[in-house]
Predict the 3D structure of the following.
Amino acid sequence: MEAQSSTPLFTVGQDIATFLVSCGILSKAWQESCFANNSESYSLNEYEGVAYVAFPSFHNIEGFIVKGSKYGEGNIQTQNNFFSCCGLKGNDDQPALVHQGALKLFIHIMENTDFQAKMQVYTDSKQRKLKPIIFVGHSLGGAVATLATLWVLEKRLRQSSPFCITFGCPLVGDVNLVEAVGRENWAGNFLHVVSKYDIVPRMLLAPFESIAEPLIAILPYWEGIIVHDSKDEPDYFIQDACRTLLNNVLQYTLTLGNYELDSLRKLDEAIKTSPYRPFGTYMFCSSEGAACIENSEIVLKMLHLTMQSHEKPYDNIVHDCLSEHIGYASVMKHVIENSISGEIIAKPDSESSYKMGMSLQLEAIGVGVQNEDAPIALEIARDIENNHSRNVAKLAIELSEKQCIMAELEWYKERCEKESGITYYDSFRKHEDINANLGRENLARFWDEIIEMWERHELPHDFQSQNKWINAGTAYRKLVEPLDIAYYYSMSKGKSNYLSEGRPNRYKVIQKWMEAKEKTRSSRGQRPRTKPASLTEDSCFWAYVEEASEDLENLKQDQHQKLESLEMFEGYVTKMIGHRNISSDVFLEGSSFMKWWKEWKNYKQNQISGWSSPLYKIMESES
C-alpha cells in the first residue's frame, strides 16, 4: 500500500492559537469583549502596547434582524462607501455578499461615532511607530469586528495588519468573500473561537426567515445575562424558542454534514443552501481542549459534526445551546488549563502519529470515535491538501523546464532587433518562425493546463496570489502574448478584433491575478521606473496598434467616428511613455507602431496647420 504524505492541515492556525493562549492575548480579548458591553458602540483600550478595539455583544439587536430576504445576504457595498467596488470580489469578479444585519451594525458605528477618526490615529502610516490593533467581539459584536478588520485590510490603512478575534460569532460572508480573503492572504488575520454547542456560529446556515422569530426572543435573554448580570434561568418560552432555533439550524447543517467534502463547492448547484461560508482559523473548543482548523470546507463540516452527540439527551443540547453562547469565560478557562498541561492541541509530526493526532484533535473538540463522519472528513481534507501540494510540485518542475523555451523566445526577440532591425512582433507577423511558433504553442498548453486546474479547484486556494506564479505568468504574458496577437492578425487578415474576439482566457486570468496583487503592492509604495521596460507592460499593446492602424485607414475614408478612438490611443501611448512602460523596440524604424505614427502625424498636420500634441513633442524630441 502506498504511503500517504503527511501534509499538515492545521499547523498555521495551531501556532497562532497556541501563541495567543500562551501570551494571554486570547484571555485579554475575551475580557475586552465583555468590557465593550458597557459601551453603546465600541471600546478602545491599550494594554502592553496593543490596542484592543471591542464591540458590544448585543447592542442594537433590532438592527441585526433582516426582513424580506431568505438568508439576509446582500452586496458588501450596499448603502455605504466603506468598501471599494473593486476589492472584495470572488474569483469570478462577483462582489462579496455579507449579512445585511451585521453590515448595518457596522455602518451605524462608522457613521455615528468617532470610530473612523480614532482608527486614523492608529493606522496613519506617518506615525513613527504603529501599535498593533486587535479587533475583538462576542456574538453580534464578533460580526462587526470581522467587518471592521476587513475595512482596515481592504483600505490598506497601515503597514502592519490588524488581527481579529471573535467568540461565538455568526458567519458573515459568502464564498466570494472567502475567495477574496484567500487571494489577499488575509485568512491568517482572523481567529474565531467556537464552543461545541454554541448555536450562533451555525445559525446563519439556516434561512434567516426561519430563525428570526426565535432569535428575537433569545437575544434579549442573552443580553440580560451578559450585560446586566442577570441570574434568571431560561423560562419555558426561551427554551422553546431555542428548541425551534436548534431544530431549524440542524435541519440545514445536516445537509452539509452528509455532503461529500470534495463536492461542497457543487452543493449550491444541487440544492439551495445558505450562502455563508467560514474563513480564517476556527478554534473549536470543548471541556476537553481545543483544535484549530483553517480549511473553509472542513470548518463548515465541523460546524455540523461538533454539535452531534450520541450520548447527550436532546434537551441537554438545547440547554447547552443557550448556556455555551454566553459561557466563553469558562471555555477560556478550560483552554488555558489544557494549554498549561500541553494538551490544547494535538499536533502530529509524522505519518505514524497522524491518526493518533487526528483522534486527539477530535477528542479535544468533543467529537468521539463513535462519530465516523469526522475522521473521514479530516482524511478527505488531508487528501485534498496533499493533491494540491502534489499538483503544485508537478507544475513547479514543468515551470522550470519551460524557462528554456522562454529563454529561446527572448533570444528570438533580440535576434530580430539586432539582425533584422524590426520588432519580434512584426517579424513573426510577416514571416512565422517555426521554432518560435512551437515554443508559443508549448507554453500555451502549459498555462492552459494551469488555468484549468485552478478553475477546477485542484490547486491551493491562494495559488493565484503566490508571487512565484504571478511573476512567472506575467513574464509569460508580456513576452508571448505579442506573438499570439501577431499570429491572430496574420491569420484573420484584419477581419476580426483580437481584444473582443480572439484573446485567450489564460491571458485574461493571469492578468487578473497580477492586477489583484498590484493592489497589495501599490499599498506598500513602489518606486517609479527610471528606465524603459524591457518588455512592454501592456501585453495587448500590439493589438491596440493593429486596431489603431485600421481605424486610421477608415478615417481616411471619411469614417470620422474613428477620430475619437485614435485620439484615445494617442493619449494611451503618451501615458505609457510617461511611465516608461513601453520597451524601446517599439520605436524601431520599421515597427508597426512607427508606421502608424508617421501616417497619423501626416494626417493631423494636413488637417490642422501647426498641429502639435504631447506625443508629437515626445516623438520629435527623440528623433
